Each structure stands twice: as C-alpha cells, then as structure tokens.
Amino acid sequence: MNVPSLLLRVLLAGLLGASSATAGEPSRRTAGPPGQGCAPPPRSAQVINVRGGRGGARGDGITDDTQAIQRAVDVVAGTGGTVSIPKGTYLVNALVSVRLRSDMTLALAPGAVLKAIPNGSAHSAILLVSRAERVTITGGTLLGERAGHTGQGGEWGHGLSLAQARQVVVAGVTAKECWGDGFYVSSSREVTFCGVIADHNRRQGMSITSGKGIVVRDSTFKNTAGTLPEDGLDIEPNAGDTVDDVLITGCTFADNAGYGLEIGVPQAHTGRAWISHVVVDGSTSTGNGAHTLSPSPRAGIEVSNCAEVRITNNRVVKNGLGILLRNGADRCTVTGNAITGNAGDGILQYLCKGNTISGNTVTGNLGRGINSSDSSVEGVSRNTLSGNGQPP
Prior knowledge:
With 392 residues, the protein is mainly beta. The protein has one domain (5-17, 47-386): Single-stranded right-handed beta-helix, Pectin lyase-like (Pectate Lyase C-like, 3 Solenoid). The protein has two helices and 37 strands.
C-alpha cells in the first residue's frame, strides 16, 4: 500500500511535529493557542473594520448585521486584505449568508460571535465560501440557531459551508449549536482546518462530502446529537462524488452520540461514490456512541465500503465500540493504536479482506479484544491484548 501523498507532504512540512510516540501512544505536539501557526499572513496590509464608517455593523446582538459585514467583505475581496470583526455579537441572516470572496482574510477577534437569526429553512449557512479561492478565516464563534429553529425538517443548517472552494484555511474557529453541521465541505480542494472546535451541532461536527487535499488537525469535535448520523466528523460522499487525500491528525472526538469519526461510502452509492487516501493519526476518540439514535452500536472510529484507510497512533477509549471495519473496508492498516475500555469489541472487522491489524494495545474492553467475524485474520499479528471481556 502506498502512503498517501498528502501525508508525505505534511510530514515534510513538519505539521505532525517531532514525536517520540511509541506503539499505542498518540503523537505529541507543543501546546499553543488554537490554530497557532496555521493561517498564512494576509498578502495586503489593508484592514477594514466591520464597525467602521457610516452603516457599519453594530455587534449588539439585536441588529441584523449581515449586509454591513458583506459590504466590508466586498471591499476587501481580491485585495489580499483583511476584514476585522471586533468583539461583539453580530446577527446574521443565514438564509442569505455572509459570502466570502477570493483573496481575503476574515479575522474574528476573541469574543466575536456571528449568530444565526432563527429560521425555518432546511438549508442555511452563517458563512459561505463558494467558487472562491485563497480565503482565510480565523478566530471567533459561529453560533447556530438550533434552539430557535422554527422548522421541523431538514438537516443542512451549517456554521461554515465550503462549496467549490480552493486554498482555504480555517484556524481557531468555533462552530456550535447549528441545526445541521458546524463545518461542511463539498467539491473543495486544498483546505486546512486547524484548531477548530465543533460543539453540540445537531447532525455532524464536520461533514466532508467531496474534495481533495484536506487536512484537519489539532481540532475538537464534541457533543454532536439530534439527528442521524450524529458524528463528530463524517467523511461520506454523495453519489457521483469523490473524497481523496485527507489527513486527520491530532484531533479529539468526544461524547458524540454517533461515531466519533465515520469514513465510508453509503451502500446505496457503491460504485458511484469513492473515498481514497485517508489517514487518521495521533487523534483521540472517547465517549462516543453512548446515546445514539441508531439501533446499532457506534464506534470511536468506523470505516466502511472504502479501501486503504490508515488508522495509526490513536487513542480510542470508552466508546460503544473501539475501531470498526465493515462491509468492504478492505486493505486498511490499523497499527500503533491504544484501544481501551470500550463497551463492545476493541477492534471489530467483518465482511472485509486484506486488512493489516498489528502493533495495537487492546485492553479492558467489555467485548473481544479483536473480533474478526467473517473477515480474514491473516493480517492480525503482534497486538497486545489483556483484560478484555471475551478471549480474542
């Protein structure tokens, strides 16, 4: 199996940092502010404060500031400059969205909140990056309207939505309380999320439905619940879509009702949607799957109906299941992981072939340590198993 090109590039660039991790231990990184060192500097010294000038934004939590912010964006667009949003609460009409343009930075100060005005629509987004490139978004909070949502159906009310975007960096941004997903990525390339937080969104913390060259690092996805799949992060292409070249590293998936991390092509889209070259490294998945709406148990990390996913050096602790490989999750590599205290099996694979499961520490799980039901066991070797509920 070839290591994905993105992982090689990131290793060479030093994103993973120096690590002395041993088998079963995640990579260690130097602590710092969320998104530190991730966002590129603006190409221009131009800065437009959204509160400046006549008709500027108010940030008082009462006024609809959508158009005032959009005017500042439109002035900066194409210049490489920055739109600055100071501390305050700025109401945004998420049916219209603040639409970011190419060649710009949107910089939210600590304490700056873009808050969606309640609506009844199935589709909305506080921030939208569509058909734009070289966009950077830093800091602040995107606050959704799930508590005030006036409709019943739909699941696509997002904090930040990327569509046909390229060369986008999102650093230190929190997206929470969204009717749908905190962050949504479709048909986008060369996208980096670092130090972002997705908290208590209704459908997913983040969805990646199509794109290439996506990095998610040092980010937290927690407390997703409300409508299936309820995942921390879900890589799930729609029919006709491809997700390729993804690195997830140094992230935390915690207390999501569904999977901590789900990577899979829906069975209904077999042969019509594709996932390739995904690496999950040095991350922690804990407390996921405890209160899912699904009748089946949920895992800390799940892979289905796609091949050659690499799951390395992660901690998978106290989930419904530990790591689940199923239904055509073939030729995957699972190595160097610490899988402990899960309510079901530590590692479960079924209807798979050609997987390599080695060098993992699998302890104290209530089910089997490694359960290879209906799957080849030829690649299962050199794992450390102890204290599991049933013999491996």
